[in-house]
Fold this protein.
Amino acid sequence: MKKYLPLIVLLIGIDFCVYSQKKSVKNDSIITAFFQKKFTDYFEVQSYFSNLRFNKAEIDKLLDESLSANNAYGEIYAYNLLGRDYRNKTLYKESIENHVKALELSRHIKEVPAEIITLNMIGVVYRRQDKIRSALNYHQYALELASRFDPPSSDIKKSKSISENSIGNIYLALRQYKLALEKFEKAMETQYELNDKRGLAINHQNIGFAFQNLGDIDNALEHYYKSLQYNNEIKSTLGKVICHNSISNILILKGEYEKALETIIEVKELANEIGNNYYISDVYNTLGYCQIKMGNLEEAEQNITKALDTGLKYGIPANINASYEYLSEIYKVKEDYKKAYEYYKKAIEGSKKTFNDRNVLYVNNLINKYDNEVKNNQIKSLAKENEITRLKLTRNRNVLIIALVSIALFGVLLYAIYGQRLLSNDKKILMLEQEALQSQMNPHFVFNALNSIKLYIINNEQKNAVYYLNKFSKLIRSILESSKTKEISLHEELKTMNLYMSIENIRFSNEIDYVEKIDEAINLEKVKVPPLILQPFLENAIWHGLSSKKGEKKVVLTVSKISDEYIQIDIEDNGIGREEALKIKTSKSLKRKSIGIELTKQRLRNFTNEFQNNYSLVYTDLIDKNDNPAGTRVSLKMPLY
């Protein structure tokens, strides 16, 4: 048998080469045929290449030929393939560079499906590096874009489930396991509907991890085995490695060390063959940890050191921290307490960079409060909308009844009575609409404020976090109080706007100089205005005027008495001007109709109906001495009586 062994090896090698050549020829022909087809959207491109597994040379071929043929779909797909290939090799910088090229090209040709897919891919790369804020921003924007499709196609539904799953993973990183489970279960509803086995495999794995950290290891193990079953069905080698690693960790927790060792050893070489350094480091950490529990300290140290070297080389914070923790445990058993302490200290310092228990608990409370407020506002809004519908139906019914009665009996008299009822119903409808719109507006900038503070909390900048959270709590209290009234004093409105500007200024690194100039002749307590009436104008000044401006940024709010019957409120910014802001808005791939100012005008009309005089709103484009745009002034003239 031994003398035939070299011949057998040679034949196997020849068969493998022939198979590889056939596969390469087949892939080349599919790539060539791609340029002969006409695609209507990026999802069709994904479907066309769905059964193809590209190597690096084939990706380069697709990119080169797409560039030569000026085929944008091919370029986007190739850049995303390169990004994923680099991500699997833990080359995150190169991965981001290629995904960003795909994103820019998607936006240039206004291909929203490609933009959604690419945003999710970028989010995954940032999540692998524990860059939580960046990851969350990309996945949230992808989810927002996908939510605009009505009705959504099956591809859009799948993209939304990917975003929800990724946001769930971010909650896992922040140890908010119950919130993560909600996201995963929502994503799985779509995956069961579409029979997306890959998505189901990923989500069962994630749910298992959440249950593991909640202490329910039996439930965790059940979900890990379900994930492994789906991965075996779709023949995902990487999925098998991930599942074996997770199952091995659970078996260690259950004290079944021999079984855990067999489970992880089964995929050790498989992980090396795949070449994904993130999971190579993870597998060697698990293997070493199992060996610690079995008393094989020398082998454990070798494997954990390899995991640490891989984590340090490719920048994998979570695995680095785990390696330091396991090495600390090894030296503790060896009674080398100095080294044990040094490694433990490194593990703690590494964890603090991406996580702080106290801060995350506080973030969790804020998110829960925000979610509850949004849900309550939605319930209130629906109730008011139902009441509006009921009043409208009643009004329409009364139109017919009163018209018939007026013709038959009293004519003009009944018509006058109907008119009074009609006006009364209209007034109720307008007031209810105003309350419904206001209840929907409040969470809008509450969510933006919460996102602005989030960076300080995650980065453990406690003084800044506490300072701005105090302002944030005052802003919330002011919003909730003002939402219960039809009018407030101008003094209270200016206090609320000052808080609002402080919170928004965080997102500009406090570059905006906000100034209030108040005429001393005005008693601000006696002047009444609708609550939050100035916020849309300040928001426009920031996001349309100043956000794209470089250099000094300034907003000046001036209140002056121009006559016995009127005061005037001017909001002036030194931004890029309305014409340039319109160009930027027009160049965006998706145009969202802004209704904030129109709603504000409607509220002003309703509010001044009871006054002797009406309001006026004037926009002035400011220019400098060279006739260049120098900002915008909004002048709101309000009646006093």
